[in-house]
Specification:
This protein is an alpha/beta fold and 441 residues long. It is built from 16 helices and 15 strands. This is Aspartate aminotransferase.
Length: 441
């Protein structure tokens, strides 16, 4: 027995002598991941700032008292402050005071009430697709998460792996779809000459798209241009998409926030659902309920039949489970509380219209200010465009000039957030635009 023990000890000693761990004076030499060596990430390049979020970073570093941030896509009050809607505070009080509530995980697909009410909000309470149980809805992480879940689902289960997005579009769109494994192509949308819709280019590009291709559509208040098709143009787009067998994927980030009417802003989506065809819809409550940081969104997939919708939902669970397991509970509970209470819903529509009307007012004030200064050019696109953003038509050099000389921050493509303006700051912006244009920057 002692001989066996001695052999084991000798074997262990030889192993320690030849192992990668060398012992000297009871000190272990540093491994590649220990604190005493250089980082395994030492050769990592610094990533550039996000072009939109980077604007805010630069703004925060500017000590000027006259600085103005028009880059961030978030609503601001006339005083330039973030807004929490009264109806949201009311809903939160109800939730906090409900002692029956707990913090348990919710299902993979999210809160049942939230999903049901979200589908009704975008598709319409009397939508045949809802009545026939042809809609699979899952709660997601705001609009971005809804798009990503939808993109992942399509990459796994849809026969066509090409998605067409508008040129230009929100900067995150191409990344969301590309990283999900889809091939991203663009179709013409904005006409810089008219600062309006390039409708013929849009029809030509979608008309030449391969059958079955996915088409990303902005439901309303196109980001970044603020240019939307007319109802008649939407109908032509619908007919083309259906005749080509293309799959529409709506991004609805601003329902009610564009015109002030939840129903009016949902009309393009409902037009596509009414014809019995299939589509995907990503919803966000960041803007229209001011729930930015709560990350509340939904993905609805409208199918041809109830049994298909049921199978789609089962596969969406398999996408979500390894991604984030289940969504957060608080923000979705706020939305569900408001949507299922008639009085709170009515209060929300009033507050929503007030926000939309203030943005419309900012458009008119800026247009008037430029006109009164005699600023060269036609600035009528400012009042023709809709929603949170305006594509000013300013070039990157003019934008840089306005940042340097007037401390006004926006994305380099000249997109400004109208929600970041106030009656007090409109003259400052108008002066900057006038200077940039007249000085031939």
């Amino acid at each position: 027995m002692e001989a066996t023990a001695d052999r084991r000890i000798a074997t262990l000693a030889r192993h320690l002598e030849t192992s990668s761990f060398s012992y000297s004076r009871n000190i272990i030499t540093a491994s590649p991941t220990s604190s005493n060596s250089s980082s395994v990430f030492a050769n990592l390049a610094r990533a550039p700032e996000d072009p939109i979020l980077g604007v805010t970073v630069a703004f925060n570093k500017d000590p000027s008292p006259s600085k103005l941030n028009l880059g961030v896509g978030a609503y601001r009050t006339e005083e330039g402050k973030p807004l929490v809607l009264n109806v949201v505070r009311q809903a939160e009080k109800l939730l906090v005071n409900d002692i029956s509530r707990n913090k348990e995980y919710i299902p993979i697909v999210g809160l049942a009430d939230f999903n049901k009410l979200s589908a009704k909000l975008i598709l319409g309470a009397n939508s045949p697709a809802i009545q026939e149980n042809r809609v699979a809805t899952v709660q997601c992480l705001s609009g971005t998460g809804s798009l990503r879940v939808g993109a992942e689902f399509l990459a796994r289960h849809y026969h066509q792996r090409t998605v067409y997005i508008t040129q230009p579009t929100w900067g995150n769109h191409p990344k969301v779809f590309a990283l999900a494994g889809l091939s991203v192509k663009t179709y013409r949308y904005y006409d810089p000459t008219t600062r309006g819709l390039n409708f013929l280019g849009l029809l030509e590009d979608l008309g030449s798209a391969p059958s079955g291709a996915i088409v990303l559509l902005h439901a309303c208040a196109h980001n970044p241009t603020g240019v939307d098709p007319t109802p008649a143009q939407w109908e032509q787009i619908r007919q083309l998409i259906r005749s080509k067998g293309l799959l529409p994927f709506f991004d609805s980030a601003y329902q009610g926030f564009a015109s002030g009417s939840l129903d009016r802003d949902a009309e393009p989506v409902r037009m596509f659902v009414a014809d019995g065809g299939e589509c995907l819809v990503a919803q966000s409550y960041a803007k229209n309920l001011g729930l930015y940081g709560e990350r509340v969104g939904a993905l609805s997939i409208v199918c041809k039949a109830a049994d298909v919708a049921s199978r789609v939902e089962s596969q969406l669970k398999l996408v979500i489970r390894p991604m984030y397991s289940s969504p957060p509970i608080h923000g979705a509970s706020i939305v569900a509380t408001i949507l299922k209470d008639r009085n709170m819903y009515h209060q929300w529509t009033i507050e929503l219209k007030e926000m939309a009307d203030r943005i419309i007012s900012m458009r008119q004030q800026l247009f008037n200010a430029l006109k009164s200064r005699g600023t060269p050019g036609d600035w009528s696109h400012i009042i023709k465009q809709i929603g949170m953003f305006t594509f000013t038509g300013l070039n990157s050099k003019q934008v840089a000039f306005m940042t340097k000389e007037y401390h006004i921050y926006m994305t380099s493509d000249g997109r400004i957030s109208m929600a970041g303006l106030s009656s007090r700051t409109v003259p400052h912006l108008a002066d900057a635009i006038h200077a940039a244009v007249t000085r031939g920057v």
